[in-house]
Amino acid sequence: MRRKIVAGNWKMNYGLIQTESLIVELKKQTKSSDAEVMIAPTFTNLWHAFEATRRHDIEVIAQNMHFAQQGAYTGEISAGMLKSIGIQTVILGHSERRAYFNETDEALAKKINTGLENDMDMIFCFGEELADRKAGNQEAVVESQIKNALFHLEADAFKHIILAYEPVWAIGTGETATPEQAQEMHAFIRKTLASKYGQKVAESVSILYGGSVKPNNAKEIFSKPDVDGGLIGGASLKAEDFFAIVNAI
Ligand code: 13P
């Protein structure tokens, strides 16, 4: 059975006090689904969040990391640093990192390798821009993002990889892919994986949808057979909304 996951990407929001309060609120919520719950606060609050959720069913994950193991990379965070405070999972390749910090497929392939060398799990994000979709190129774009960053891997590596399809035009815009558009793309992603690694590997990888998932649309999106959960931005900043989405699975 594939893992069902709802992960909250807090992006560059909340200092320590707000992080503490949100975690207190999250711990009051009850989960009625079998989805795994993850939250990704900013780097400076990871340790606090990790400690504060220790005995709870919430995994604290990171939003990014560098591809080098260590060294002269001022301002960066390594996989080893994350592991040293108990962080097992990291989001890589978010479209905001690609757009504002020039993260290329090549750099992401290196980050994936570093994650594997450090025995980490990774949520690998990708997705087309509005112009790609308008031109009908969404599948070609997604296929190349997946191939460029992941297709050098051995099949075994996919035990550590979770995919997140996040169409750029749906992120923070209030515009969501329709459940049908999400299903169509997720099925295409699985087919792309199967073409190289076979059906068994393709069926084992969880594929999350991200882009304006809210309490009022989560259930319909998650009901699609190839959608295994969500990567949630804005709605993950309020405990009630986030758990409404968790419970929609
Ligand atoms: P929104 O849910 O705010 O659209 O953000 C989605 C996202 O980027 C999650 O990584």
TrEMBL record:
- InterPro entries from the xrefs? Aldolase_TIM, TIM_sf, TrioseP_Isoase_bac/euk, Triosephosphate_isomerase, Triosephosphate_isomerase_AS
Pathway connected to this protein: Carbohydrate degradation; glycolysis; D-glyceraldehyde 3-phosphate from glycerone phosphate: step 1/1; Carbohydrate biosynthesis; gluconeogenesis
SUPFAM superfamilies membership: Triosephosphate isomerase (TIM) (SSF51351)
Q: What is its EC number?
A: 5.3.1.1
Q: Where does the UniProt annotation locate this protein?
A: Cytoplasm
Binding site residues for substrate: 9-11, 172, 212, 233-234
Keyword Lipid biosynthesis belongs to the record: no
Q: Which UniProt keywords apply?
A: Cytoplasm, Gluconeogenesis, Glycolysis, Isomerase
Molecular function (GO) terms for this protein are:
triose-phosphate isomerase activity
Tell me which residues this entry annotates as catalytic.
Answer: 94, 166
- Substrates-to-products reaction catalysed: D-glyceraldehyde 3-phosphate = dihydroxyacetone phosphate
Quaternary structure note = Homodimer.
**Cross-referenced PANTHER family:** TRIOSEPHOSPHATE ISOMERASE (PTHR21139:SF42)
Which family does the record claim for this protein? Belongs to the triosephosphate isomerase family.
Quote the function comment for this protein. Answer: Involved in the gluconeogenesis. Catalyzes stereospecifically the conversion of dihydroxyacetone phosphate (DHAP) to D-glyceraldehyde-3-phosphate (G3P).
Cited NCBIfam families: tim
The protein's name: Triosephosphate isomerase
Q: Which organism is it from?
A: Winogradskyella alexanderae
Gene for this protein?
tpiA
